[in-house]
Write a structure and sequence with these properties.
Number of domains: 2
Radius of gyration: 22 Å
Distance between the termini: 23 Å
Shape: globular
CATH topology of the largest domain: YacF-like
CATH architecture of the largest domain: Orthogonal Bundle
Order of helices and strands: EHHHHHHHHHEEEEEEE
Helix content: 40-55%
């Protein structure tokens, strides 16, 4: 398949949280190897965002429910002759391993980071615009001036504490995305509305278009229907809906 650009819309708060965490972990892993103090600042700021997202709900319970739900759904496929049983068993083993890994975490996810006085001192100031200047946090300034290898070791240690969350989110989103085959759709004058089966809840809607397309997709939806609008990008003005018909691949991820 040719390279495509994907636009995604979660249809539940749980999947929305997983997507936010996935994006933040990717961002943290991108800036982590950087040697400059600014790279370390960026990684630590992203770590604070991850903690903020994780603190909004019983994330551990939500992730365990989702892992167990996937396990139950896939276990039913063991009786289907056409299914690759070796591949199925590998996925079930991965799900079981993630469940065990989350159960092994004592207390709230990321609790060790929330109890770290150095991290908390920076996190409290990070919500203030420009609040982490050298004169605000001398200890932070001292840490940023340490050798890059020392800072990298500390950052890696802190991110490793969140490893069970990162790996569980990655596995769940991979399974959800791979659960759907694309249907070829046409948005007439840049607009498509499609009904969903309310008895089979859709977890995630994905729209795939070629990189050469001069429009972007806006997706909205709920239990009964989804809407896709293709909008013309306007650099210094308000976006307008595309006037032409646009063909694209639509994925309704149901697992």
């Amino acid at each position: 398949m040719d390279e495509q650009v994907f636009y995604e819309q979660p249809l539940s708060e749980r999947i929305r949280t997983f997507l936010r965490l996935e994006s933040l972990f990717l961002q943290a892993n991108h800036t982590l190897p950087g040697a400059s103090p600014w790279d370390s600042r960026a990684t630590l700021s992203t770590l604070f965002e991850i903690l903020n997202v994780m603190g909004r709900a019983d994330l551990k319970g939500e992730m365990l429910k989702e892992l167990e739900r996937h396990g139950a759904a896939l276990t039913r496929l063991e009786q289907v002759p056409e299914v690759d049983q070796q591949r199925l068993n590998q996925i079930l083993d991965q799900l079981d391993a993630q469940v065990d890994r989350l159960h092994s975490v004592e207390g709230q996810l990321g609790q060790a980071l929330r109890q770290n006085e150095f991290i908390n001192s920076i996190r409290q100031r990070a919500s203030i615009p420009g609040g982490t200047c050298d004169f605000d946090l001398p200890a932070y300034h001292f840490w940023l001036e340490r050798p890059a290898a020392d800072r990298l070791r500390d950052l890696q240690e802190w991110l490793n504490i969140l490893g069970p969350v990162q790996s569980a989110v990655a596995l769940l989103l991979k399974l959800i995305r791979e659960s759907a085959a694309p249907s070829r759709e046409r948005a007439q004058a840049g607009f498509l509305q499609k009904s969903l089966d309310p008895d089979i809840p859709c977890q995630l809607v994905r729209v795939a278009v070629p990189p050469s397309l001069s429009c972007y997709a806006e997706i909205s939806g709920g239990k009964h229907r989804i809407t896709v609008r293709f909008m013309e990008y306007v650099k210094d003005g308000r976006a307008v809906q595309a006037a032409q018909d646009i063909e694209f691949d639509l994925y309704c991820c149901l697992i």
